[in-house]
Amino acid sequence: MVNTSHGQEAPGALEPVRTLLNTWLVPNDTRRAEDRFDEYADQTRMPRTRRQEVRALRDDLRRAVEGAADTAAIVNDWVDRLEIRPRVVGDTIAFTDQGGLAAGHVTAVLEAIATGRWHRLKACPDCRWIFYDHSRNASKRWCLMTAGGPGGRSCGGIAKVRAHRERNRATK
């Protein structure tokens, strides 16, 4: 199974969404983007008939998390496409849909938006790894500050060293 946690798991049903998003990554050793969706789909025994739809959802949600697209527009489009409808069940809201993995992921995103957790799903500006920000004020910026991230990367530490070197060059 593709290991996509690195100690940065999202709560509940949002973790499978984060795992899906990290099937596209920039490995530390090559620094070239890799699409590992097919490996993920095989490991999770995803039906071939659903793969194109789930890959498209992954790409759209990555654009939303990375800030390259409007989350509301993307999610609303998928809600319409998958015919997801809210229903009151007891004292809570549940969602009905046509079924399938994509619908389950979109439902998890809707629940994360409703509970204020969606904005805590972030993309590292360096390696573009999707992580869940567990910090108190949701101000985390990089996947990790110390080695141990995707492929042992420490994007925050690397960024701070880079900024320090730039400042030193500017003052010389």
Task: Give a structural overview.
With 172 residues, the chain is α+β, with helices and mostly antiparallel strands. 44% of the residues lie in helices and 12% in strands. It has six helices and six strands; from the N terminus they run H-E-E-H-H-H-E-E-H-E-E-H. The chain has helices at 14-21, 37-43, 48-65, 71-81, 101-114, 155-171, and strands spanning 24-25, 34-35, 85-89, 92-96, 121-123, 130-132. The strands form three sheets. A two-stranded antiparallel sheet has the order 1-2. Strands 3-4 form a two-stranded antiparallel ribbon. The chain has a two-stranded antiparallel ribbon with strand order 5-6. Strand 1 and strand 2 (34-35) form a beta hairpin. The longest helix is centred in the N-terminal third of the chain and has 18 residues, at 48-65. The protein is globular, with a radius of gyration of 18 Å.
Q: Can you describe this structure in just a few lines?
A:
The chain is an alpha+beta fold and 172 residues long.
Low-pLDDT residue intervals, each spanning 5 or more residues: 1-5
Mean pLDDT across the residues is: 85
Structural Rg? 18 Å
Strand content: 5-15%
- Category from helices, strands and their pairing: alpha+beta
The ordered string of helix (H) and strand (E) elements is: HEEHHHEEHEEH
How many strands, which pairing sense, and closed or not: the largest β-sheet?
Answer: 2 strands, antiparallel
Shape: globular
Tell me how many strands there are: 6
End-to-end Cα distance, whole Å, is: 49 Å
Determine the fraction of residues in helical runs and give it as a percent range: 40-55%
Widest sheet: strand order? 1-2
Count of discrete alpha- or pi-helical segments spanning 4 or more residues: 6
